[in-house]
Every structure is written in C-alpha cells, then in structure tokens.
C-alpha cells in the first residue's frame, strides 16, 4: 500500500512538473513570437537578425526568400509590417522544436499603400544552445472566420 501511494505521488509530481515545463516553454515561445511582430513593425533588424536562423525561409504571397532578403525588405521598408493584430494563437512542442500558429489581421505598407489582410502565420522555432531561432515563417491567406484548431 505504501509503495502504491508513493508511486502515485511520484507520478503526479512528474506529470505536474512535465506539464508545467511544457506550459512554461510554450509561453516563452509565444512571447518571442509576439515580440517578433513588434520588432517587425519597428523595423528592428538587429533583434530580428538574432532571432532568425541564417538559413530560415520566409513564404509570402509574392515569393519565398531567405533571412538576408527578409531583413533587407524589413529594413528598406519595401514591406512594412505596421501592425499585426493577433486574434488567436496555438503552440505545439516537438522536442527542441516549436510550431506557432497565429491568426492575424496584418496591416502592411506594400507598394505605396496600406493593405489589410487576414492570415494564419505558421512559425517554426528550434532551441539552439540557450536561444530559440526561427527556421521558417509562412503567411497563409485566410478568411476572417478561419479558426486554429487546438
């Protein structure tokens, strides 16, 4: 009886610890994702360069490119991510990899005018040493009624 009770207590503690760690890590990645939108709006390429893996890929409505091109586009203002209004988010962890889905309304300055578009943005992060690095960011155009299934 004592062994069963002790086993149950250890199991519950392990589950609580594991869930707490996942939740804490999910929150950490989600917070980083939100900071990314802020840095993009502020054209803070110094912070973004630290976040983006040098070999990351960025998929937009008009093409796919690498980190240096994305940073150039942000710095030059050829696409200015003025505001990303995040409506819904989900994070899933796979070992040292995290996938974030954000349903957003993006206001961006593109080709001389402001454009407002509904997107679900998929972001892939990987823990490298002690830092999270973004490996991929994909914009998918969706209806404003689109929902992220959790």
Automatic annotation (TrEMBL):
Q: What range does the record give for the signal peptide?
A: 1-18
* InterPro entries to which the protein is assigned, alphabetical: DUF4440, NTF2-like_dom_sf
Pfam families cross-referenced by the UniProt entry: DUF4440
Which controlled-vocabulary keywords does the entry list? Signal
Output the superkingdom of the source species. Answer: Bacteria
Enumerate the SUPFAM superfamilies for this protein. Answer: NTF2-like (SSF54427)
Q: Provide the DUF4440 domain boundaries.
A: 37-134
> What name does the UniProt record give this protein?
Nuclear transport factor 2 family protein
Could you tell me which species this protein originates from? Algoriphagus formosus
């Amino acid at each position: 009886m004592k062994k069963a009770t002790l086993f149950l207590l250890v199991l519950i503690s392990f589950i609580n610890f594991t869930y707490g760690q996942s939740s804490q890590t999910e929150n950490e990645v989600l917070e980083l994702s939100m900071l990314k939108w802020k840095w993009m709006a502020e054209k803070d390429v110094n912070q973004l360069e630290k976040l983006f893996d040098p070999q990351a890929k960025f998929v937009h409505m008009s093409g796919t490119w690498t980190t240096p091109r994305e940073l150039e586009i942000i710095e030059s203002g050829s696409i200015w991510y003025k505001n990303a209004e995040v409506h819904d988010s989900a994070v899933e962890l796979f070992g040292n990899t995290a996938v974030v889905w954000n349903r957003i309304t993006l206001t961006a300055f593109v080709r001389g005018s402001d454009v407002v578009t509904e997107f679900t943005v998929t972001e892939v992060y990987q823990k490298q040493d002690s830092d999270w690095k973004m490996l991929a960011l994909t914009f998918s155009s969706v209806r404003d009624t689109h929902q992220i299934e959790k």
